[in-house]
Specification:
This protein has about 300 residues and is α+β, with helices and mostly antiparallel strands. It contains eight helices and 19 strands.
Length: about 300
C-alpha cells in the first residue's frame, strides 16, 4: 500500500485543525491508493460504500444522463472530498469519478468514517458545511444556465477553474490539468462548436491561450459582453461581465451620462447592467460605447470596452 504524509490531510477543510497525531490516526483508518490517469474510481450507480479524499492530482466527476449524454459536474482537487455524501446517506454514487492525472487518494469505509466523526465531531460539522457549499455552487450553476449567455457561462467557468486550480505563469494563470473543450461544453450546457469558436476568438484577442490539455487565463482578466450587439432604435440591450484578479469594477458610457451616473456606485467584479433605450439619431445607425474600468487586487487598473449599435 502506498505511503502518504498525514499532513496532506490538512488541505481538507474537514480535517483542518486536527493535530498531527490525530491526522495519523485518520490516515490509518483509511486506505491510500495511487490512481492512474483515466482510472475509474467508482461508477455511477455503484453502491456508495466508501468516502474519498484526494491527496494529489485531479479527479473529474461525470454524470451520464438518461439520453446517454454526459455532463461534467466538477473537478476535484487536492484536499477535496468526493463520494462522501452519497456514502453517508446510503445512496448509490450519482456519477462516475475518473482520475484526470496520476493521483493519490485515501478512502474510508462508511463504518470507519462514521467512527472518525464520532471521535471528532468537528469532522461531521465541517462535512455538512462542505455539502452545503456544494449545494450553493450547484444552485449558482443552475442560475447561470438559465440567465446567462453561453459566452458568460464559459468565461465564468474558466475563471472558476483558474481560481481553484490555476498556477501562476508569466502571462496569467494556467489550468494545467487536462481539460478538453468538450469538458467545457458539458460544464456550461453548451456545444463543442460554440466552445471552440468562443475560445478561438478569445485566444486571438489575447484573453486566453488554449491547447488540448491546458488553458491559460490572462491575469488579471476581464470578459465584457453585450447582448445583443445591435438593437432597433428605442430598444435596450444588456451588458454582462466576469473578471479575475479584480477588487472592483464600474461600467460607464461616454455617450450616456445618466447611465454612467446610475452605475457609478455599483462596483461588482461580476455583474450585469441594462442600457436605457438606445436611439438611432438622424435616422442613421448610431454606435454607443461602453467601458468597464476595474481596479486589480494589486492596485493597478484594467479596462475592457464594447459597443452596441442602434439601427433605424
Amino acid at each position: 500500500m502506498p505511503h502518504a504524509d498525514p499532513r496532506l490531510l490538512q488541505r481538507a477543510e474537514m480535517f483542518a485543525g486536527l493535530p498531527l497525531e490525530e491526522l495519523e490516526n485518520v490516515m490509518a483508518a483509511g486506505v491510500v491508493r495511487r490512481l492512474s490517469a483515466g482510472e475509474r474510481i467508482f461508477a455511477q450507480g455503484d453502491a456508495g460504500v466508501t468516502c474519498h479524499s484526494l491527496l494529489e492530482g485531479r479527479v473529474k466527476i461525470v454524470q451520464t444522463l438518461p439520453d446517454g449524454s454526459q455532463s461534467v459536474l466538477r473537478f476535484i482537487g487536492p484536499g477535496e472530498m468526493y463520494g462522501t455524501v452519497a456514502a453517508l446517506m446510503g445512496q448509490p454514487f450519482p456519477a462516475d469519478a475518473l482520475a484526470v492525472t496520476a493521483s493519490l487518494e485515501v478512502r474510508w469505509t462508511v463504518p470507519a468514517f462514521r467512527e472518525l466523526m464520532r471521535r471528532h465531531p468537528e469532522i461531521g460539522v465541517r462535512s455538512t458545511a462542505s455539502a452545503g457549499t456544494r449545494l450553493f455552487d450547484l444552485q449558482s450553476r443552475v442560475s447561470e444556465l438559465t440567465s446567462e449567455r453561453v459566452e458568460q457561462r464559459i468565461a465564468r467557468t474558466l475563471l472558476r477553474l483558474a481560481r481553484k486550480a490555476g498556477r501562476s505563469v508569466d502571462d496569467g494563470l494556467e489550468i494545467d490539468f487536462p481539460i478538453t473543450r468538450q469538458d467545457l461544453a458539458e460544464m456550461t450546457g453548451s456545444t463543442l462548436h460554440t466552445v471552440s469558436r468562443t475560445l478561438a476568438a478569445w485566444d486571438a484577442s489575447g484573453l486566453t491561450g488554449s491547447a488540448q490539455c491546458s488553458i491559460q487565463v490572462g491575469k488579471p482578466g476581464i470578459v465584457l459582453i453585450a447582448n445583443p450587439k445591435s438593437v432597433a432604435s428605442g430598444k435596450t440591450s444588456a451588458l454582462g461581465w466576469v473578471t479575475s484578479g479584480m477588487q472592483k469594477c464600474i461600467i460607464s458610457s461616454p455617450n450616456l451620462p445618466d447611465f454612467t451616473s446610475q452605475n457609478a456606485d455599483k462596483t461588482s467584479v461580476n455583474g450585469t447592467a441594462t442600457t436605457p433605450p438606445l436611439t438611432a439619431t438622424n435616422s442613421a445607425t448610431t454606435t454607443y460605447n461602453f467601458l468597464l474600468s476595474c481596479v486589480t487586487l494589486g492596485g493597478g487598473t484594467r479596462q475592457a470596452s464594447t459597443t452596441i449599435s442602434a439601427t433605424p
